[in-house]
Amino acid sequence: MSAHNTRKFSLVWLDSSVNVSEENLDTQVLFRKVNDQLQTFDKVDQCLEYIRTNSKEKVVLVVSGRLGQEILPRIQQFTNLIAVYVYCSDKKRNEEWANKYLLIKDVIVDLKILLAKIRADQVQRDEYQVDVPLPFSVFHPKSSRHADSATNSDAFFYFQLLIKYFSQVKPSDQEKHRFISLCKEKYHDDQGELDVISEFETKYSSTRAFWWFTRDCFLHQLLDQAFQSFDIDLLYHFHFFIRDMYDQLTETKRSSPTRTYRSQILSNDEIVSLKSSSGGFLSINAFLSTVPDRNRALTMLNNHTVPDGSKQVLFEITADPTEHDAKPFSNIAAWNYEHGTEVVLFMAGTIFHQIRISESESDNIVVIRMEQCHDSHRKVKVIFDRYQSERTLLSFGHVLSRMKRFDEAQKYFEQTLQDMPHDYHSVACCYQGLGDIALKQENYNLSLKWYEKALETNQTVLRSEDPEIASSYNDLANVYLKKGELNQASQFYDQALQIWIRALGKEHSKVAGCYKNLARVFQSEERYSEALEYFKKALKIQEKHLPGDPFELAKLHNHIADVYVLQNEMNEAFQQYNSAYNILIKNHSSTHPDVLLTLRNMGFVYEKLGNLNEALEYYKKIAAARQRLQLANHDNILQINQDIQRVSALLNVEVSNTVAFI
């Protein structure tokens, strides 16, 4: 590995005379040829503080014998410390204490041997990358009953959509130039890396993506950083490269099933997460390097020190390239920078089905057996169907907006406007996306501006009865409803409704959505009979689309119940709340916020009907659920406690009055 290559670790030298003797100053020059960001310390506390404050950076420590005995007992808990070398003049004496510490790789008296050992060990770490974090997200079909399932499935889906976008949308001609400019900016003070960037600029071609991917340089470091931090902006700069990797994997993909292995150090928390989703699906949110030899994979594990709170993990992977709609994988030995090194590489975002997780008592290695599965697998398809409306390639910015990553979403839309200024559909989509962001940030005037531009763009290329025109009217109506300008909202909703009925038919889900929106307007205007009529129209359509979206059905039942409450028709309200509850409890855990809110509404109705015991029972159910979630100081638990106290007081008054009467 050349001296100017990517800094995969920080080299730290601790010696009381590190900056004093002429010999040590000369040694520093040699160390900097191994790592040009050498850090030197002559005091233990200063060295400890550096390692502690740079917890996200891998550290290799070279230490004298005397200070080594002092610092080693104090650094065992640092998970970022990957190797320690004792550099001393008395090997035998220092080995006596050093052998107690697994972190110590060697006790060395010869400088040339030390330098060679540090280089060799790092080359091995770079090849195996066992201790490099493995970004992944999990999804289990049964997890839909858990309150946090939306977050888990969202993370799973977002990365799938990202990779779908990068692998299928052709990059613009400017993307490579923007990427190179970014790299030059990031490495402006590293001449060696700048030379490699210049080489990339002049010599890179799409057919050499594997070669550059496996080279230890700026590109691999930045790509790792982008995947591990899910840095959308940085990943967007890699669009052209990820597309080239996808194409090369597709062109060279294997023709027969294979078994391959991945060695990994995972934290106990990560292992618990995987065990809890056993039988579910795992998306690897980066390119996954594996080896076809199990013994080699085990050797990789055994050559790495396991920090406290972590375990050795061996992934046993079965993959069949003949499966339809599966992401490509290939043995890239022939195209590897280190030519001939056997590596089976899987496309970023490859989905695996976890079959079994077991732990060997003899060597404490966690073995995870899994098989690659295709994107249209019937159980995985559940999550994609949930996001069916967002699966177009131009919807990536909308997904970022849904994640509340508004700055990144805005950058995406603005960049797309620059890249595709003559694609009217894309332009309108971007304007609509910018309007969505402004609406979510409650900047209603700005939102109107963007939605109006989207409408104007659509009107230049689409006929007046096109459903996309109706979508623009609906967006504008949503803003006017938020602003309380109900007449304007009603007019735009009605325009959208008429177009959708003519274009899509009276029983389309968009028609149902528009009925619901008009009902919200009527409710705000206190026109409760019309609100009920339109909510019920929406409900009738949605019920015909069963199984459809159960959560939308529950919302409609709750909306209808709310209107009945406003009309003081409590029995009808209770029936609707109960219908909503029965739907929600089949699809959520009993502690889900929507379930608890519906229970509270049912308790409220009982209270209004004078059925105080029943009301109290419902309120207590909610309080118990929130206590299980450890929300003792949450506003909602304080509110439900007030409900309990209020109803309890009313019951006590009734009891007192009864006793007095007797």
The CATH class of the domain at 136-154 and 168-381 = Alpha Beta
Give the CATH architecture of the domain at 136-154 and 168-381: Alpha-Beta Complex
Q: Count of helical segments?
A: 28
Give the fraction of residues assigned to helices. Answer: 55-70%
User: What overall form do the CA principal axes indicate?
Assistant: globular
| Average pLDDT reading | 87
CATH topology name of the domain at 136-154 and 168-381, in short, is Toxin ADP-ribosyltransferase, Chain A, domain 1
Category from helices, strands and their pairing = alpha/beta
Summarize the biggest pleated sheet.
6 strands, mixed
- Poorly predicted runs of 5 or more residues: 1-6, 144-151, 657-662
Query: How far is the N terminus from the C terminus?
Result: 95 Å
The fraction of residues assigned to DSSP E strands is 5-15%
Fourth-level CATH superfamily of the domain at 136-154 and 168-381: Toxin ADP-ribosyltransferase, Chain A, domain 1
User: Major sheet: order of its strands?
Assistant: 6-8-13-14-10-7
Please count the beta strands (DSSP E, at least 2 residues each): 14
